[in-house]
Amino acid sequence: MLNHETHExxxxxxxxxxxxxxxxxxxxxxxxxxxxxxxxxxxECLEKEFDLRKIPFQSQIEIRLSYKNTPLNQTYRAxxxxxxxxxxxxKAVSQILDVHxxxxxxxxxxxxxxxxxxxxxSSFPKVDIxxxxx
Length: 134
Prior knowledge:
The chain contains four helices and five strands; from the N terminus they run αααβββαββ. α2 (about 15-35) packs across α3. The longest helix is centred in the N-terminal third of the chain and has 18 residues, at about 15-35. Mean pLDDT is about 90; it is low at about 1-10. Helix content is about 40%, strand content about 30%. By secondary structure, the chain is an alpha+beta fold.
């Protein structure tokens, strides 16, 4: 019974293959660069790794915000949107906090995307990746 339940949960992972491809690129950047650099360094490295792996992405995309269906002057920049469906937020912090999770959740709502990956390159001994589903 446990195997069936595990299988059912595994089958419900959204964008499974795409997110695995993205995570592979993230792991490669971490393996090559390690921890301790700024977010902008990891941003550039991921751009290069996504290109090498032919993962379609947009980088530093300006996202328009609205309040009660009225556009705001304020915008935010998404670190990455891959495959036109997965938002990636990069951090280089001692640990991921609830405020970082809330930030990604708000970005998902603003873009109407369903899946976000919150990536912390400053964790050790391995990169920390959290999946957040809207």
